[in-house]
Design brief:
alpha+beta, Heat Shock Protein 90, five-stranded mixed beta sheet, two-stranded antiparallel ribbon, transmembrane, membrane
Amino acid sequence: MPPPQRLSSTFSKSRYYFSDFRRWRHVLELLLASNLLAVILAVASVKDLSELSLITLLHYLLFVSWVAICFAVCVDKLQKFLTRFDRHIALMICFLLLIVLVLSSTCAVNILKFMGDRSQQYLDVSTIFAGGLHHVVLGGGVGLICLRYLYVREQWIEQQQSELMARVQALQARIHPHFLFNSLNTVVSLIAIDPFKAEQMLIDLSGLFRASLTELREVALQEEIDLCQRYLKIESVRLGDRLHVKWRIEGEDQLKFAKIPLLTLQPLLENCIYHGIESMSDQSTVSILIEVIDRQVSIVLTNPYQSGLQSTQGNGIAIDNVKQRLMAYYGATVSFKIFARDGIFTTLLSYKYQ
């Protein structure tokens, strides 16, 4: 989740070794750090601050920013190449790349200075590499510190992601036993009355649990809907005419592409039935509205309820579990709201997938 970053990408094994410069946030972070470094180097180059001119400061800012941008572009282009190596070897390659960029940029600046200085007639090696050793030592030293920081930060991010994965898996485990207990009770009650229906329910139940035992992942929204329909078939046999389900889907052509964490919608439907429909003696309707527009998924569930008969504690646990799982995958894009008014309980959730 992770995800940060959706979990599908957050838990991906194909990761940058120390940063992902394809994201504007990381590029901005790099530029801010490099400009701060440029200011420090500019101040360190003079004995007194009064000697520091604006032109000198701009030279340092432009030089360091240029090296930083070139470094980010090179790392982005070399991503597949770097992932072939051990993390430490990849960091050494990046360090050597940084040294080469510093040295080549120094030479380029010296050549430009020579072209603008008419007092010099000949361009020799000493002129081209003037100040190169100084820049390499400073750039290499600071580069080692920065790479070490980025490496430690990446380790910390990976630890957070591992903890997040464990938390999401624990939340899933808290949902499944509840569903298993109630479903098996339904099957047992049907064996003596209608063995054929009991067999069909076991087939649907096995399909649900086959999905629940798969690896933690996102699935197509269409697959989640199919699983929910299996679940509702089980409950419709148990509740009979008391349960009426109304589906409304907008953007059906996007259901195969839209993403949702596996078994997210099913616990909410289970919540609608066990804390709403079961307490009703007459036919009651569970309404499901699903809308997919521009990678934005919106889901609205409504069910009747009776005040005083509803187990608000179990209701809250199920909703909180699903909310935490969605936030683990989609972060700040998640909106999760519940309303209870005039005998109707409404669950509204939306998120944006990539």
